[in-house]
Amino acid sequence: MSEVHVMDHPLIQHKISYIRREDVGTKEFREVISEIASLMCYEATRDLKLQDVTIKTPICEMVGKELTGKKLAVVPILRAGLGMVDGMLSLIPAAKVGHIGLYRDPETLEPVEYYCKLPADCSEREVFVVDPMLATGGSSAAAIQMLKDKGVKHIRFMCILAAPEGVKKMQEAHPDVDMYIGALDDHLNDHGYIVPGLGDAGDRIFGTK
Ligand code: PRP
Ligand code: URA
Fold first, then answer.
1. Burial environment of residue 83 by CB neighbours within 10 A (0 to 12, 13 to 18, 19 or more)
2. Which residues take part in binding 5-phospho-alpha-D-ribose 1-diphosphate (predicted)?
């Protein structure tokens, strides 16, 4: 069964409460989403592997630590996932970036695929799939299946808000994928929106609507 990490860092909680407010405009919403992604990246990379490295400081030689193991990739689910990419790259700048285009059909709530472009060596990387919202879980489960179909084996999923329905769907569909969740909300409404949520993340990031 996958691990579910719900963030308890006070800065993350504070910033999530801030962007939930309906009167926060596009510029601030986008900036704070990026900050949250960066803080969540810090939490989600706690268990990356390290190796010893001998270095020389201006004072003496010492054995320090550096990252080892798999190289990283960030894969946002378009559109709203794009809002998390810069924040992730601020901490893991050498990561490659792939893109998966999915939108949720407003009637059926089923994901519709329209784009997929991944780094050539994606299957050898540790991949962080990012999307601010995990609602029914249809979009993230489909995106992760697309990655698995292309041979990707090491996948983590990061979202800023999740509904319990989405977490359940992801655990059933992808029990091998650990989840990093900024805040776990109460339920979905009749239109598949997270309650209390923050509204439509894509529209709020890009100023559409
Ligand atoms: C939103 C969100 C997720 C999806 C979550 O995207 O960014 O991708 O809905 O819903 P689900 O868990 O029920 O699939 P949307 O389809 O609105 O597209 P957008 O990012 O282009 O606005
Ligand atoms: N997508 C969003 O952007 N918001 C929700 O609450 C659910 C899906």
1. buried
2. 79, 104, 131-139, 200
